[in-house]
Amino acid sequence: MSEFFKLAYELIAQIIYNISEWVANFVKGFIKVFITGWVEYRLILESYFPTLPAVGKVLAVILVIVLAAIPVTLLILLIRSIVVNIRLRADGEDNVVLYREIGRLNKQVLDLIDEKNRILNMKIGTKGDLSGTGYAGADALNGTAAPVQAVSGASGGVIMGESSAPGTAIISSKASIMPSDPFAEAPEGVGMVGTFGAVGGVGAGMSMGVGMGMGSAASGEALQSAAIAAATAAASVKSQAELELENSIHRFPKLSLVDTKYENYVGQEFDDSVTLFDFAERYRRFASSQMHLYYTPEIVRRFIAGMAASHILILEGISGTGKTSLPYSFSRYIGNPATMVSVQPSYRDRSELLGYFNEFSKKFNETEFLRALYEAGYRDDPTIIVLDEMNLARIEYYFAEMLSVLEMPDKDEWIVDLVPTAWPGDPEQMDGGKIHVSEHTWFVGTANSDDSTFTITDKVYDRAMPIELNQRADAFECELEPRCCVSVEHLQEMFSRAKEDHPISDATLARMVKMDNYLQTRFKLAFGNRILKQMYDFIPVYVACGGTETGGLDYILARKVLKKFESMNISFVRDEIKNLLVYMEKVFGSGELPDSIEYLNRIQNMY
Hints:
Elements: H1 2-48, H2 54-125, H3 136-141, E1 159-161, E2 170-172, H4 216-248, H5 253-261, H6 276-291, H7 297-309, E3 312-316, H8 325-333, E4 339-342, H9 351-354, E5 356-358, E6 363-365, H10 368-375, E7 383-388, H11 395-398, H12 400-405, E8 415-417, E9 434-436, E10 441-447, H13 458-463, E11 465-468, H14 488-501, H15 506-523, H16 529-544, H17 549-561, H18 570-588, H19 594-606
């Protein structure tokens, strides 16, 4: 054995010696490469560097920097690895404590939920104090039967009288006391009538007559039937309570207040004898005398004619020209103040305007826009909703649904879905979770053109009537003018009468056809069906308000057709625009289309 121990000793010693030699050589090599070797590196560099050309010297410096960066990088990575490992161990210990704390909190949450459920069950089962009193209804909900205790009375047979408090039962007897055991025998001829108290605030009466002299078996079966009947009554009462609770929830509190407001509403008196010309002139005097706001007759004509052509109007121009005050003062003039909605840059979808249903509170988060939209269905006069600074967000995002709804030719299809199903207690004018957009409603948007706003797309422009306000009107004095309340029926009647009294002449129609053919041939632009319809609605009303047929056509051309040049590359069609100006003067006469000519010149100078 001594020889084996010598063998093992020498073998292990040699292995340890070799490992030690390897470690020592590794340390020496590391020191030689990264520490003491720099002396030799410096000598080599000094011997070659003076003889190198300029490019070679630059490359040599770069090489030295790269070689020096390698050990520094390795050292940084090594230190970083050590620090990360230390942090991971510390984080692991902290995470164990954190997980334990999360588990403890989760257990507390579950305990609280169980406690809440027990409290809710008690509230559903009874409203009174159950201590010391037998109550079948509450236990029947849980599938158990509670014993009914008996107390002695003063006279008569044994009768279970009405409860003195909800959820209690009192039994009276003439000469004997009922045993507390409900399954014990009772004297022959004794009757029992029970009345169960309210469950969840709703009274549910039940009576039963059971012959108690037939022995314990018959008595037990009778009480078992009574327990089943009590469970059935309790379930019925519970469902009735839930139904009443559902009925008591108003998902639309603002709209319900509108219903209440108009229960006994008496409409205002309308001046249904006014003409369009007087209507426009009286508004100018009203705005001047009562609100100190001044507008030119041209702007007023365009605004009223725009209402005839579309239910969406866009007021554009620089700040301070009265874009917001125009619809505001006009709504005061007709006796129905406008609803002002300030558009925010965060608007992304329809919920910003119409609101949304909160699943947690089971209520609809209503907006003023929705309230005004709903209230318009009750009124007979025009309702104006102003979207102030409407292009701070993308109009085709948050207003897309309204653009599509108002495009429907049948006004009975102007419907907006708010919630998928109807609930009891929903507003009166809501049908199956939907509301109808009244044709009495006009949407007026104001828009600025600066770096903080979005460009209004052709989709919006095609459906709306744009009106530019780029300069303030001169102030003028007049006598105090009262408001002029008109019904929508009379307003539409005035629009229809204007079409009959001032139809577009054949000469103007012929010029329009020539203009359309020229624009299609040279620029691929056309009078679309929508623009043609708006033209037939706009021009007669514009003329009835005191304008001219050519002036109305000029405005439609400039704002609805020629505006599409802004989406073209003007540098490629600049010469064609010059030819278009010449052609317009040839067809309509010199200076007959000042708006269109000014607009084309402005586009050329701008681009």
